[in-house]
Write a structure and sequence with these properties.
CATH architecture: 3-Layer(aba) Sandwich
Largest sheet: 7 strands, mixed
Number of strands: 9
CATH superfamily: Vaccinia Virus protein VP39
Structural class: alpha/beta
Strand content: 25-35%
Number of domains: 1
Strand order of the largest sheet: 5-4-3-6-7-8-9
Radius of gyration: 16 Å
Length: 225
């Protein structure tokens, strides 16, 4: 499998480093302050995670369609969820992402955590993201095809879980796959209603806390059932 060349990663014009830098400036103006998150987002070539026809819009602070009824998340939301994850959990050796999608969020996390497992239920998106992450040189990200509502038990328990689609309620299996002291960042809420970004912290098996943060808009959580 051919590795993507350096020039394609650097981009040009509307995908150049200067355009990326302007995006980072906007994220800082919106309140993103974690320097590690900003550093990784400045480096990751978002234009390679969208369709070539959309590449000129790839550094807008907006979600974009990626096919199959799915989107690549708005950069601010990617940054915000990543920042919250880092603030909540000190040790990020083993992390689970539910909803690989375009693999952009996975690529951001891949620069910050030791090992990332990411699960996608749509076969076409799974194959595309698997191949793209490999071509970009990520060797600490393991992609899996499966129903994210069941998590990925084979590599559990996790130091943290991040979910990139909104279920109506938090899947119990995901809480069970958190280590004691670990947290999950997840948008929760039905379509056409208010969705809230939530932090779920498992202190132990019988002590689970949930805190709500800002309102968000995510595609619905897709199950294979």
């Amino acid at each position: 499998m051919r590795i993507i060349d350096e020039q394609a990663i650097k981009g040009m014009g509307m995908t150049s480093q200067r355009t990326r830098d302007r995006l980072i400036d906007r994220l800082q103006q919106k309140g993103i302050s974690n320097l590690d998150v900003l550093r990784i987002m400045r480096r990751v070539p978002r234009h390679l995670f969208v369709d070539e026809a959309m590449s000129s819009r790839s550094y807008e602070d907006a979600s974009l369609p990626i096919g199959h009824g799915q989107t690549i998340s708005q950069p601010y939301i990617v940054a915000r969820m990543t920042e919250l994850l880092i603030e909540q959990v000190e040790n990020l050796d083993n992390v689970l992402e539910i909803g690989t999608g375009s693999a952009y969020q996975a690529a951001i996390l891949g620069g910050l955590v030791k090992n990332l497992h990411t699960v996608e239920v749509i076969p076409e998106l799974y194959r595309h993201s698997r191949d793209l992450l490999y071509k970009l040189g990520y060797r600490n990200i393991r992609t899996h095809l499966g129903d994210g509502s069941w998590g990925w038990k084979e590599a559990a328990p996790y130091d943290a879980i991040i979910v990139t689609a909104a279920p109506d309620e938090i899947p119990k299996a995901l809480i069970e796959q958190l280590k004691d002291g670990a947290s999950m960042i997840i948008p929760v809420g039905a379509q056409n209603s208010t969705q809230k970004l939530q932090i779920v912290t498992r202190k132990n098996k019988n002590d689970i806390s949930v805190t709500e943060h800002e309102s968000v808009v995510f595609v619905p959580f897709v199950s294979s059932e």
